[in-house]
Amino acid sequence: MKEKNKTSQKWAITLFTIGVFMAGLDNGIISTALTTINDSFSISPSWGAWSITLYTLGIAVSVPIIGKLSDKFGRKRLFIIEIILFGIGSLLVAFSPNFIFLLIARLIQSIGGGGIFIIGSSHILAALPKDKQGKALGMLGGMNGFAAVIGPNLGAVILDITGSWHWLFLINIPIAIFLIVFGFLKIDETKPGTSKPLDLVGTALLACAILALMFGITNLNSQAVLESITQVNVAPFLLIGIILLLALVYHERQVENRGGDPILAFSLLKKRLFQITLILGLLSGGFLAGIIFIPAYVQQVLQVPVENAGYWLTPLAVSSGIGAGLGGVLTDRKGPAKTIILSGVVGVIGFLLFPFTVDGVWTFTLASILAGIGLGILLGAPLNVLVGESARSGEQGSALGTLSLIRQIGMTLFPTIYAGFMTGGFSKLQNAVEQEFGNNLLDFSKSSEANYGNLIEQIEMISNTELQVDILKIVTDTLKTAFSQMFITASILAALVLLTGCYLHYRNKSAYQNK
């Protein structure tokens, strides 16, 4: 029986890992084909960006709710439902007759894909002994980070081979069928939680609060973050979100006092360890966002052609996977606090190498490896183990969903800040070029951080080779300054991760000495 259970868990973890990888790839893959999709439906880039924004909103709203449902009704059942929804959403996206239909399909996809990581992680916390959890969680976290890094490049390869954006979504179908069939056959159902009624009022308050907050954050202007907070499409939504969150906390306290089953336990929110874990989740979102900007750095600062950029990113992708495995092993052996400290140290060094030492392939590779390892160590194992230590049995799913939500907020907020650095860099670039070569050499009205290729095309059309070199030098130097600001900010986040890990270690040491 013990051997049978061991085999069953191996199958379960393998299937969860494949599911996490499939779902994690999706947003990175679609970003590559965004222009092609917009052109096929004849829509503007700002309208087309909603195919990514809506997916992000759907994940943010659904993950804490799905986490709770997995605790309540069993994780095998929810995993299969999630895969079915993701597969149906992928199929509907691929055959969308118009853009509105595509947006609805993307929302279905997000509800299906958002909960896979939470269900897999909560299954591990519930089914594996504590000394085996870190390694398994590290695998899931590694797949999540690995998928986010390689997604854009894999999307470019698929688009280049097939010539059609529809295949970016059709490739999910056979994977989803495989996961559904083997999920039925190989995953043992975890024991369902309480039979008490679902907290529908709390669920509605949580969903509306998240939707309002995420919509407000999404509308922040990257060129003037602080100023845009007061805008009509930001401030009211942030205010409504905060009010609804306060109402949610009050409601959940009342439900728990009555002996009900809250969507998010108030007793969990009060725990200092869980609060610290949520702070680390927010920081990890900013950490991951810094990694996601590295492909743009390769093209815009190191001047690597887009068709070769994927090769340069291989060390980053591989090292994030290695870091996740290492983080899992270290969490099992040394505990989550020391693992988090190591992640912060490696992350600080890796991010600081980019602005101060990177000047070619070897220095870039070293910085990428360290940044990737730092990210991989942090994602998955140590934070999820901390959640396992905070939450009672039957609460792991909702607790992990809350952590994932906070990380998603970080992944939405920090790219806006980082994009502000890029926008500022392009403004300075326009001034530098026009001051040196006049106003008529390049048309910056069609060029921005989101359309860098247009600027390069204009430069390549200049017949004077020496002039081309001079302009590219200005482009590289100016944009490097903007990216340097981003990397330094990311290193500050890594330093905060380090300090938080030190606090956890000191807290644990003090608790041990007081026993």
TrEMBL record:
Database matches in Pfam families: MFS_1 (PF07690)
Membrane topology: Multi-pass membrane protein
SUPFAM superfamilies in the record: MFS general substrate transporter (SSF103473)
Keywords recorded for this protein, A-Z: Membrane, Transmembrane, Transmembrane helix, Transport
Compartments it resides in: Cell membrane
Membrane-spanning ranges: 12-35, 47-66, 78-101, 107-128, 140-159, 165-185, 197-217, 229-250, 276-298, 310-330, 339-358, 364-387, 399-421, 486-506
Residues in the signal sequence: none
Matching Gene3D superfamilies: MFS general substrate transporter like domains (1.20.1250.20), Multidrug resistance protein D (1.20.1720.10)
Limits of the Major facilitator superfamily (MFS) profile domain: 12-509
CDD domains tied to this protein: MFS_MMR_MDR_like (cd17321)
GO molecular function: transmembrane transporter activity
Listed GO CC annotations: plasma membrane
Highest taxon in the source lineage: Bacteria
Cross-referenced PANTHER family: MAJOR FACILITATOR SUPERFAMILY, MAJOR FACILITATOR SUPERFAMILY MFS_1
Protein name in the entry: MFS-type transporter YfiU
Gene: yfiU
